[in-house]
Automatic annotation (TrEMBL):
The species this protein was found in: Saccharopolyspora gloriosae
Protein name: Arginine deiminase
GO molecular function: arginine deiminase activity
EC numbers on record: 3.5.3.6
UniProt-listed GO biological process terms: L-arginine deiminase pathway
Length: 404
């Protein structure tokens, strides 16, 4: 149910159908954990100014609400989910890793997490806990003595902000992603809990599984109903793409899955860092890869998967989508500007409807080319949000989009 009381059942068949319900995470105290010593490991490129990041995120959410979109916040869903004792038990179980902290600290952490209320539990799950914050364990622990007080007994999840990656809705099913980087693995335990126990999702079916080969939502693009592109690179593995395709075919959610190799480097973490859809037949794409991006086409065949290609991505995509041509909005940028704006998530747009996208304001050139091509660009500021290397698409997980 949305605020007006009308039902908006989860349903996403495209990248650009009018957005109705979206899952965001307002960044919180987990961002305050970032230091120059841990930011690499926690996948941030700079230390964000937290208040400003929150203000930027509030403005992002407001832009969506102003257009009638129901914004659901992950932190609130988690608190509501944890009212269910089964969810609480599962949450504690998934948060404590004896291999990391040993049995004594694990016991202390478990008993602490089991006694706090759901708000404090949600906060600990997201913002983590340091050894210093953990109530003193009985007896003496080597682990505690050999760690610094500010080391983490429970690691924080600063990348939870990028709700795109930890779950993906395809049709009326949700796939909880299997995240590749250790710093992000616990995120899927949280989305998994929410989808399993929050009453809002009690009727939602699952696709794929959190314990399968790595697939991250930023790599998954719903090019058209029945056509899914999936980037394969630093995060999503070939095995992940293949089993995701099998899962799509088994549930009749897709007839074609395009596996798209992307360079394994920081600038192109996911497919959506170099290419996003801005209209039913158009993408904005990093110019440097426009002519080199390829795709393997996967289709169901006799209970297995038929693989063809690789072929140029634009050709296979248009073919699978049943259109003559997939338009690339020509940002026509010189290589240096293009590289700068790609790094700052210029190609990472969130479509609110065909031809209407949210983009970071700082990517001045890309945005003006989009507008020249007839795309409405809703600008948001993201100087602090972008320190985690993610733009409007990364920061949003569409739950309901109207059909085209
Ligand atoms: N869909 C995306 N492109 N997400 C970007 C995620 C960035 C995040 N810091 C990571 O390295 O995982």
């Amino acid at each position: 149910m949305n605020e007006s009381g009308s039902t908006t059942e989860p349903h996403v068949r495209s990248e650009v159908g009018p957005l109705r319900t979206v899952l965001l995470h307002r960044p919180g105290n987990e961002l305050k954990r970032l230091t120059p010593r841990n930011s690499d490991q926690l996948l941030f490129d700079a230390i964000p100014w937290v208040d400003r990041a929150q203000a930027e995120h509030d403005a992002f959410a407001e832009v969506l609400r102003a257009r009638g979109i129901d914004v659901v916040l992950l932190h609130e869903l988690l608190i509501e989910t944890l009212r269910d004792p089964r969810a609480r038990a599962a949450a504690v179980l998934s948060a404590v890793d004896e291999r990391e902290i040993g049995t004594d600290i694990a016991d202390a952490l478990r008993s602490h997490l089991s006694t706090v209320d759901e708000r404090a539990l949600a906060e600990a799950l997201i913002a983590g806990m340091t050894f210093e914050e953990l109530p003193a364990a009985e007896g003496d622990s080597l682990v505690r003595r050999m760690h610094l007080p500010h080391d983490f007994a429970l690691t924080p999840l600063p990348n939870l902000l990028f709700t795109r990656d930890s779950s993906v809705w395809v049709g009326d099913r949700v796939a909880v992603a299997s995240l590749a980087m250790p710093a992000r693995r616990r995120e899927s335990a949280i989305t998994d809990l929410i989808y399993a126990y929050h009453p809002r999702f009690s009727r939602s079916g699952r696709a794929y599984g959190a314990h399968s080969a790595p697939v991250e939502g930023g790599d998954v693009l719903l090019l058209a109903p029945g056509v899914v592109a999936i980037g394969v690179g630093e995060r999503t593995t070939p095995a992940g793409a293949e089993s995701f395709a099998r899962s799509m075919f088994a549930d009749d959610l897709a007839h074609t899955v395009l596996a798209v190799p992307i360079t394994q480097q920081r600038a192109s973490i996911h497919l959506d860092t170099v290419c996003t859809m801005v209209a039913e037949d158009a993408v904005v794409m990093y110019p440097a890869i426009q002519h080199s991006l390829t795709a393997y086409s996967l289709r169901p065949k006799d209970g297995g998967v038929d693989v063809s290609g690789p072929e140029p991505f634009l050709t296979s995509a248009a073919h699978a989508m049943g259109i003559d041509r997939l338009r690339v909005i020509d940002t026509g940028l010189d290589p240096v500007t293009a590289e700068r704006e790609q790094w700052e998530d210029g190609n990472n747009t969130l479509a609110l409807a065909p031809g209407v996208v949210v983009a970071y304001e700082r990517n001045v050139e890309t945005n003006s080319r989009l507008e020249a091509a007839g795309v409405e660009v809703v600008r948001i500021s993201g100087s602090e949000l972008g320190t985690g290397r993610g733009g409007p698409r990364c920061m949003s997980c569409p739950i309901t989009r109207e059909s085209l």
